Amino acid sequence: MVILTELQRCSMKRGEPSRRTTISAALHKSGLFGREARRKPLLCKKHMTARLEDSQTMRNKILWSDETKIELFGLNAKRYVWRKPGTAHHLANTIPTVKHGGGSIMLWGCSSAGGTGRLVRIEGKMNAAMYKDILNENMLQSALDLRLGRRFIFQQDNDPKHTAKIKKEWLQHNSVNVLEWP
Fold first, then answer.
1. Where do the Transposase Tc1-like domain residues begin and end (predicted)?
2. Under 8 Å CB-to-CB from 172, ≥6 apart: which residues?
3. β-bridge mates for residue 115, sequence order
4. 21-63 pLDDT, tens per residue?
5. What's the CA gap between 182 and 6, in Å, rounded?
6. Angle of helix 4-13 relative to helix 20-29, nearest 10 degrees?
């Protein structure tokens, strides 16, 4: 771990004093940026190996799922550009658009370490009841097709329709283990 003041001190010892801003600019140019150091538990090699083996075993039992929106023309997200003042409308700084967005489709899909499961087109706006129907018609069959066994773990994010009572009851009724998501 290198601290900026240490670099400045080293440059002074070498007889080539440099300002902190000069050192910082050189580091930024090299792709290095000052960030807070992360904290993590101190583990010995044996513990790291055991954790890795456990995670690899568990990974093979997980059925991952998510929804996505695919835009026919472009992306439905903000994009940023670096530009000079007065160049906002230059071709290189703009994103071409079409009227009404060009259309899009919503999809639900799942996958595991063993491959991809079913991919389903979502018609209209999805709610908890529709999500439960998608799981009922596709999730269990995907787990079967991917040979995950009866004790697989289902992963989903914390979208409100994923945490709705109707869907939780369905998962419980079908004895599906759910990976807790932060």
1. 4-53
2. none
3. 112
4. 888 888 888 888 878 878 887 888 998 888 888 888 888 899 9
5. 38
6. 110
